[in-house]
Design brief:
The protein is 30% helix and 34% strand. It has helices at 9-16, 20-34; strands at 4-7, 48-52, 56-63, 66-74. Strands 1-4-3-2 form a four-stranded mixed beta sheet. The N and C termini lie far apart (33 Å).
């Protein structure tokens, strides 16, 4: 199944301010969350979940057809 990923505007802004290494890790962390629907919160956008990378995290809500990333962090 193909899933959709939406990025909140503040996530797009945060990504634009990260170095390439940080952007790469954030995108890898988003991909890890996307391929593991078992960790998604209930669909509908009312609940959130976190997925952790080595130096990053993404906060996201789930919908029937994918996720919306509403916050990110990178400690690199």
């Amino acid at each position: 199944m193909t899933y959709r990923v939406d990025l909140a505007f503040r996530v797009e802004d945060a990504l634009a301010n990260l170095p390439d290494k940080g952007q790469q890790e954030i995108f890898e962390t988003i991909a890890a969350a996307l391929v593991r629907p078992a960790i998604w919160p209930p669909p509908g956008g009312r609940h959130g979940a976190l997925c952790w990378g080595p130096l990053s995290w993404v906060a996201f809500a789930a919908y029937i057809d994918g996720i919306e990333v509403y916050d990110v962090g990178w400690a690199g």
